[in-house]
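Q: What would this chain look like folded?
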Amino acid sequence: MFWVAPPDESCESSHVSSIRLFILGSLAQRGPMHGHGLLQLAKEEHIDEWADFAPSAVYGAIKRLAADGLIEEFRVERQGNYPERLVYRISGTGEVTLHELRQQGLTEIVIRPDPLDLALARLDPDRLDDLPALVEERLGRLRDTYSASRGHLVDIRKYLTVAESWAMSHQLSRWKSEVEWHEELLAALPEIIADEKSRKESH
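A: My prediction, written as structure tokens:
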């Protein structure tokens, strides 16, 4: 299935599916865990760098999953002077949902429109000379992000499974593709600007 999200559609459904897949998948693979354990796992895996949610969203998602019957209370755990923590496990319904989420994640292709594209198609005819600097600045930020992400992946690769390494490299390949496209755009700007100015004069 190939799906292109329309510009005005909320990304909430994708976000919810991703965080549910993370929590249910983690409980299925690692066994019962409490919220803090899931939060720490999300941080250790730098989940915000290759998924569409931040570790801080885990606690709220746990409550929603419990309310939906996808996870259930397993036991109460207390270590030392720390407060009691409720340990959750995946439910039978959660197992079914996890299978569906895995299938969805492996088969759907989601490409979200970039606001840049519409802005590029609707340029301000009175500010065309500002365009090269704006694209240069954008390209610089993309290069910095790509470089930092590549270095980070090299640093942590030894801690990742083969599948996790591929998952993170997927996002890295997207940053690389963005850098290359913006480099081509920058080279094409003289032609773009000349065309925009000629159309302005013709009107």
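Residues 162-202 form the longest helix (41 residues).
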